[in-house]
Request: fold
Amino acid sequence: MTAPAAADHRRFFTFAEAPDLLRLESGATLGPVTIAYETWGELSPGRDNAILVAHAFSGDSHAASHRQADSGEDKPGWWEFMIGPGKAIDTDRYFVLCPNILGSCMGSTGPSSPNPDDGRPYGLAFPMMTIGDMVTTQKRLVDHLGIAQLRGVIGGSVGGMQVLEWMVRYPEVVRSAVAIATTMRHSALAIAFNEIARQSIMADPNWRHGDYYGGRGPDMGLAVARMVGHVTYLSDEAMRRKFGRKLQDKENFSFGFDGDFQVESYLRHQGEKFVNRFDANSVLYITKAADYFDIVERTAQLARPGDRPGQRSRYLVVSYTSDWLYPTYQARELVRTLKRSGQDVSFCEIEADCGHDAFLIPDQRLSTLVGGFFDGLD
Amino acid sequence: MTAPAAADHRRFFTFAEAPDLLRLESGATLGPVTIAYETWGELSPGRDNAILVAHAFSGDSHAASHRQADSGEDKPGWWEFMIGPGKAIDTDRYFVLCPNILGSCMGSTGPSSPNPDDGRPYGLAFPMMTIGDMVTTQKRLVDHLGIAQLRGVIGGSVGGMQVLEWMVRYPEVVRSAVAIATTMRHSALAIAFNEIARQSIMADPNWRHGDYYGGRGPDMGLAVARMVGHVTYLSDEAMRRKFGRKLQDKENFSFGFDGDFQVESYLRHQGEKFVNRFDANSVLYITKAADYFDIVERTAQLARPGDRPGQRSRYLVVSYTSDWLYPTYQARELVRTLKRSGQDVSFCEIEADCGHDAFLIPDQRLSTLVGGFFDGLD
Reply:
């Protein structure tokens, strides 16, 4: 018996049609721009209960399943434990919105989208974009939905960067921000790993300077890039616990290059899986946007107490003890910076041994923190 | 004016000629085997002053320069600050020997050496080998030089693995061991990084299943592999101090993929440099040997007090605070294991922010430790 195909709950918002193209931070223009998004719950009559969920690097708009009567079976979303009726981001109370980021390949406009100049995929003709550009498109979507103020923005990793960018760019629009496992700007180490991933893709002869659509893509380079990324999402402890030196299906060493250790097969599997679901050029553009991201010099743009009479932006910053991509010392720098600029900030470091990816793993502590934070806004 | 070419001080010891082939740990046989090596200082009449220096993954026999009258100019060795007259490994007092490891491409037999079957480079016909096999060939060299007992073996990283393997395999031969920035066995994280390096090489179509000699090699894959390796040799702190987010030759972002940050250019440069000096297949074989290495189950083979009347093996274990490839907790495990088996062990963790590579960077603290350790043996 085959399970019925999951219904696609994505909606699409298209704007910046010629000649009103979107001007990007680099100065380049882009249009039309389509943003794929999903929503859960109902917008209140006062339109004041919207929470925007920003996804990470390779995520998509499917943050949670849609279990309405009409939807049949639906596959779980990437933040299923956080979003739903009665959960931390309570869809019985909040209108939850998750847009796919600009530059991705999950429904929003990106390098694999058709270039209106010739109808063929952009490839490297896609303009370089920033986290700021992603947020600009999200703001256009929020305007389109008739939402003048967001109750909150929340996200982890590159999603957390979008959260911070929202606060810098549209301080008057957002009442609260939850930035999880993220940073104000990439360290040299984070840039280094992203650059290795890009080099791995661009070293694959099938990459063909980004012009591979319709033919064989840079699958080998993309798989290696994902393996690199995946290691940075885990931690020494997590890998030790999960794999240690366990061998794959045998008691002895193979004395060959097919992979002896379970961690090797696991990484190869992660690489292969990624090739089937993600576009190599999107990796190039999104990693570059993350490397460029830097709010340190722009904190003067954050809301000042009194900017919105009777209201003050509130922040929750969360880090994980074993996250070595964006370690806790970087979260503390963020907290200090926010406090110096007069923001109302709560900070929590969660003890967890599963590394950067911890925010994607069901954990009651994160649910409780976030649920309490959004409840406490009233 | 051109500097005179550095003289080549390597000597070569060839053994295991057919039919007396060398049997490797895997059961495969290999021969003839050539080990390239360099020596400094004089062997004492009692032949009791020899110290063997084991090099790391991509090192060679040129651990220090040779400044005898006949040698003209000589280029500095990779451990120049440690080895020489009056230095920690004092060539006025000790006979110092550094062999290039089996499987390398720096003079010893490896996958780029001619296969006696057809005279063409082995490629993947080269048998898989272990750290134990490397040490077996070093023992043959030591025998050949007429040295019945080594005053010490010393090495960092994969060189430290060879040190530990010496102590397990030939406990009666070695009086003292210095194991620096090393581990009893690779963690899942270390295996993961090695596997990524291997996958990157094997993903390059120019790798041709290892049969690329005489044509274009897997230069792109090898460069990415080296970039991965290089990041694991540094540390978050070291990269922050050295690069931070400094831009390359410009004040603004390029909004292109040519590299904006200095850390990107630096890594690319490291990758390119490596391609010019190292063989991709040697990376495959040596990383695999390091992944297989595991002395945890073999510590019963270490010398027991009383094995050599009047003498007891002495150990010095050194780790670095910022080494995240072989972190201090792994050095402490080694120390505990050695102590449990009755060994005489000193341990020092050196505070340094330059990561795993710290042992290669001139540092008076390491010189003092090692100098004092070897002096104190008398």
